[in-house]
Amino acid sequence: MSSATDPKQVEDVQGDGRWISQHKRFMLEAKEREPEVVFIGDSLIQHMQFSEIWVKMFQPLHSLNFGIGGDQTQHVLWRVENGEMDDVQPKVVVLLVGTNNYDHTDKEVTEGILAIVKAIQERQSQVQIIVLGIPPRGEKPNPLREKISKINEGLSSKLSSTPNITFLNADFSAFINSEGLIDSKDMYDYLHFTNEGYRKFCEPLVEEINLKTKYKYKYCQYNRNKDNMMLKTLDLMINFSFQLI
């Protein structure tokens, strides 16, 4: 068994217990709230809750955000198998993880993500699962981009005909220009999204959740109006002090 599919807690190397504290808080939120959508994954999910698209699109659905910075597939798998999906009945679960599995092969990461999907299905047999393709990373072309492309190809192949599961591949062309570069306007550190980056990344997700929850999004018109492409700055000062996802 690859370590990417072997459920494991994050080692508390800093000694402050933050990871397990977040896990326990997520389980409490699952018991106390009735979300239509649950998002789970690494900090690409975690940071989404501070974006404008979350406030406008996902917050009205009472969405829960179970993203933890630095998580790899085996860590999310452990969280699912240890209570985060046991006391909640969402219509949709959105999963994004894998960019931190830099020590694993593309096939191992793909299998790790599939193991999470299976674990969610075992606990939520009727839920619709949306698996998001991993977005590109790094300002310039690099081996991780190639690896991520292979992971996404593997997920697309494995999930294309699976009932109750939708795979939304990441559109690399939305973030990589003709010279192969990623703009900091989309990813401020060439990994984590800005507001504009989240808008681009989440457009197909918004439409898919709309279909699955029957929620009437008005924001889609905003996305297509060229005169309103610039997002208003949120009055949020967020200090993302950690470097890992």
TrEMBL record:
Keyword Magnesium appears in the UniProt entry: no
Ranges where the SGNH hydrolase-type esterase domain occurs: 39-199
Listed EC numbers: 3.1.1.47
GO molecular function: 1-alkyl-2-acetylglycerophosphocholine esterase activity
Signal peptide residue numbers: none
Top-rank taxon: Eukaryota
Gene3D superfamilies: SGNH hydrolase (3.40.50.1110)
Keyword annotations of the record: Hydrolase
Family to which this protein belongs: Belongs to the 'GDSL' lipolytic enzyme family. Platelet-activating factor acetylhydrolase IB beta/gamma subunits subfamily.
Protein name as annotated: PAFAH1B2_3
Organism this protein belongs to: Mytilus coruscus (Sea mussel)
